[in-house]
Design goal:
two-stranded antiparallel sheet, 278 residues, 9 strands
Length: 278
């Protein structure tokens, strides 16, 4: 069974205020976070993947091809954000072909890649907030294993667009993951989810797991607790953990940012294999 080589992963949050045009006069308040996201995306690209898959939370679990796009229209910015690098120039929503289908998480991911200036091909997977941990792990493994996609765990069209991702003797492409998700939204009284004493220890546990590339700890995150704390990153993080476990070998992590500037915890990290290049 040949697996697609997984060469690196970057983890970023997805607040709309990360985009300077959306934040307006408050854009400098997230300058440190924005710079941290830029750094981990640069590290992801420095690993020389042939293709990037974006993972983020969504209302339902589904995959998106390169022709899809997101939009910042609901935030007062009439701009679409294309997933495809062949259509990297942002256009107004009126000029877009079809509705914007990417959820916010994947829209921010596409914006980060566009900001980095990469022309690498990419596709995306939205993961429902209520996906069980076991299915998230299977989704992650399915990103690297065509047999699992054929079993219906991942849209086969997504993996079919990855060169060499089949048991046909072709050379597999090098895959990079950009994972989008926020921590708890319950750190202070004025947080979106109000104050919850469970939020800080939850976020600290996630930060330790991301810093140590601890797939076991991420896989053990409780879905009910995560939902109660409005932590949208739980399911995408568990897909990442499943992919890294499927890739095998030892991995290292580095936490680039951890703070809750608006009562929502934002975590930024890089993961990379520590052994021989895959």
């Amino acid at each position: 069974m040949a697996l697609v080589p997984l060469v690196a992963a970057a983890v970023c949050p997805h607040p709309p205020l990360l985009v300077p045009e959306v934040a307006g006069a408050a854009s400098t308040e997230l300058a440190e976070l924005r710079a941290a996201c830029d750094r981990v995306v640069a590290r992801l690209l420095a690993a020389e993947p042939d293709r990037i898959v974006l993972l983020g939370c969504g209302s339902v679990t589904m995959s998106f091809g390169a022709a899809e796009h997101g939009s910042f229209h609901r935030y007062g910015i009439h701009r679409r954000v294309p997933l495809s690098p062949t259509d990297a120039a942002d256009r107004t929503d009126e000029a877009a072909a079809g509705p914007a289908r990417l959820p916010l998480s994947l829209t921010i991911g596409a914006w980060l890649l566009g900001r980095a200036g990469t022309a690498l091909p990419r596709s995306a997977v939205a993961v429902a907030a209520d996906e069980p941990a076991a299915r998230c792990a299977a989704l992650g493994a399915g990103l690297l294993n065509r047999d699992l996609s054929d079993a219906g765990l991942i849209n086969a069209d997504l993996l079919g667009s990855v060169p060499g991702n089949a048991s046909d003797g072709a050379t597999s492409c090098r895959l990079g993951l950009l994972v989008l998700g926020d921590g708890s939204a319950c750190r202070v009284e004025w947080s979106p989810g109000s104050d919850d004493p469970r939020a800080e220890p939850y976020d600290q546990a996630v930060a330790r797991a991301l810093a140590g590339a601890d797939t076991r700890a991420l896989g053990a995150l409780d879905a009910e607790l995560s939902a109660g704390l409005k932590a949208t990153g739980r399911a995408p993080w568990q897909v990442l953990a499943g992919a890294v476990r499927a890739a095998g070998g030892s991995w290292s992590g580095e936490l680039a940012y951890a703070a809750a500037p608006y009562g929502v915890t934002y975590l930024v990290a890089s993961w990379a294999p520590t052994g021989a290049a895959r």
